[in-house]
Sequence to fold (247 residues):
Amino acid sequence: MARVPPQLIETLRQSREVTVLTGSGISAESGIPTFRDAQTGIWAEFRPEDLATPEAFASNPRRVWDWYAWRREMVSEAQPSPGHGALARMARTLSGFNLITQNVDGLHQRAGSKDVIEYHGNIMRDKCSVEDVVVERPAPGDEVPPRCPACGGMLRPDVVWFGEAIPAAALESAQLAAERCDVFLSIGTSSLVYPAAGLMEIALRNGATLVEINPAQTPVTKLAEFALTGTAGAILPQLSAALLEPE
Ligand code: APR
Fold:
């Protein structure tokens, strides 16, 4: 498992602005399977790519709603991982810090991170599938999916499905955070899904130092000045502790 190179600590100490992009790997240590992990139980026969789509919701809204209910249950029982906690501490020690996550589990916020850019939305929020506005979770009723109290449209999770656009505000703030930073950390993401994966390229184009934390190789590993092979839960607490040590 990679130890944190001293020159990375120095780079972070001297950084003006650090931007972090996290993927499902940081939540793997909270017990939430990554996207590319096989699904379990009754959902084993389905691929996320076949459930997290507008078409799947149109053809079988109840199945998609039930899948998210299963995932919400898993998320509410999960605890933030040591990696989530370390990022929340790092934000308080660095001069400029932006956190973009592809995860919809809200664990960064539960670990104490503020102003999280939720690139793919948040599974714990519902929205009206007709008006596209966030709606308070209704009391459990017999209708599945529940209906919007304002227009009667079906509710759906407030997440970005395959083929849907990233929310404009998140897209813009993430792009800005990638353009402005002088250090970009890519943590626990396979860097396969765009436009999130394009954020690394924007940061590199603007001269940022790219750092990757992942037990496996990804398409950006070769572009990283610091490619730390290991888990977020093992590496990030070391990083956060080293930043707190007197220089
Ligand atoms: N610490 C760090 N990284 C880890 C850990 C860990 N403990 N465990 C696994 N990983 C890495 C894997 O090696 C992999 O590269 O996390 C990555 C998870 O990749 P994916 O499952 O592809 O998840 P992610 O990159 O977040 O997917 C991006 O694609 O499916 C869509 O919208 C979905 O947000 C998701 C997006």
